[in-house]
UniProtKB/TrEMBL annotation:
Protein name: 7-carboxy-7-deazaguanine synthase
Residues that hold [4Fe-4S] cluster according to the record: C43, C47, C50
BP-aspect Gene Ontology terms: tRNA queuosine(34) biosynthetic process
Enzyme nomenclature, EC number: 4.3.99.3
Entry keyword set: 4Fe-4S, Iron, Iron-sulfur, Lyase, Magnesium, Metal-binding, Queuosine biosynthesis, S-adenosyl-L-methionine
Annotated metabolic or biological route of this protein: Purine metabolism; 7-cyano-7-deazaguanine biosynthesis
Listed InterPro entries: 7-CO-7-deazaguanine_synth-like (IPR024924), Aldolase_TIM (IPR013785), rSAM (IPR007197), rSAM_sf (IPR058240)
Annotated residues for binding of S-adenosyl-L-methionine: W49, C50, D51, G85, S126, P127, K128
Pfam family, one: Radical_SAM
EC primary class: lyase
Protein family membership: Belongs to the radical SAM superfamily. 7-carboxy-7-deazaguanine synthase family.
Length: 209
């Protein structure tokens, strides 16, 4: 990548755009809501069960001017979800400022592993053991969504829940490939610990993107 372009990406006025699409939010608090998703490339958190590993290498995704991203988003929805990859790899201030100028409601889905930039109406924090969230993201989280791949993830979920703010909504979500095994365990756990809720990837059950 040319240095001039890399400088623009580092500043957040261009972003490595993997894909953008209009669909139904399938997970967490806003499930069932029509939303425009902006998936930004780049992630070094390295979850072995990640279902979007093609997002990890930012160099595979074209640096795209945020003006173009916002123009496309404005055609479809007032609810915008920024996801990745790990979007906080990049400076989100310029993109969210421009989306806000268009009257958008902006959500982020993040592992929280990097500095919290951007202005957000909703922060979905999905922490990962390999690279824990920053203190500021714990404080800002509206929803904590812990992926349950094995039984030890229940312990991890409680560790994470002890760090977030008191108004944050708590979700346990089965990793898709383990759903048949983990859903019964999650249901039992939530019934015994009702401060938690069950989150499912409903878009996969509905067979939508």
């Amino acid at each position: 990548m040319k240095k001039e372009v890399q400088d623009l990406v580092n500043a957040g006025v261009m972003l490595p755009l993997m894909e953008e699409f209009y669909t139904i939010q399938g997970e967490g608090f806003h499930k069932g809501t029509a939303a425009y998703f902006i998936r930004v490339g780049g992630c070094d958190v390295g979850c072995h069960w990640c279902d979007v590993k093609e997002s990890w290498n930012a160099d595979l995704h074209p640096p795209t001017a945020i003006e173009s991203i916002v123009e496309n988003a404005a055609k479809y929805s007032k609810t915008i979800v920024i996801t990745g990859g790990e979007p906080l790899t990049w400076n989100m201030d310029p993109l969210t400022e421009m989306l806000k100028s268009q009257g958008m409601q902006i959500h982020i889905e993040t592992s929280g592993a990097y500095k919290l930039t951007g202005t957000w109406d909703w922060v979905c924090l999905s922490p990962k053991k390999m690279k824990l969230p920053t203190k500021e993201v714990y404080k800002a989280a509206n929803e904590l969504k812990v992926i349950i791949f094995n039984k030890d993830d229940f312990r991890f979920a409680e560790e994470q829940a002890a760090k977030i703010n008191e108004n944050c909504i708590l979700y346990l979500q089965p990793e898709w490939s383990k759903r048949d095994k983990m859903v019964p365990l999650i249901v039992d756990y939530v019934m015994q610990n009702p401060q938690w809720k069950v989150s499912l990837q409903t878009h996969k059950y509905l067979n939508i993107p």
